[in-house]
Write a structure and sequence with these properties.
Strand 3 and strand 4 form a beta hairpin. The protein is an alpha+beta fold. The protein has helices at 30-40, 79-85, and strands at 5-17, 22-27, 49-55, 58-66, 73-76, 92-99. The protein has a six-stranded antiparallel barrel with strand order 1-2-5-4-3-6.
Length: 100
Amino acid sequence: MQPEQTHSFDASLWLYHGEKASWHFITVPAEISHEIRFFAGKTNGFGSIRVRAEIGATRFDTSLFPDKASGCYFLPVKALVRKAQSITSGDRVCVRLTTG
């Protein structure tokens, strides 16, 4: 069982345009990504890791997804969260992640 970890950081929300849809993500900083990966143990499909995230007053359960090119994790941010916090692509936000 992986130990619980909590990390806080500021990062920008960005938009990824896929072939059939677009998604909003926040890139977890490299140092935090490496620490999460070190303690993660078993991961889910695609190397994803379950987390509880907080942006402002909104808490939500989701998964972090690894990016091979950067070595960082991407945090998906659903429309409900963006709407509740009045954030859009390019906005800098404070994120709190809890794993374990």
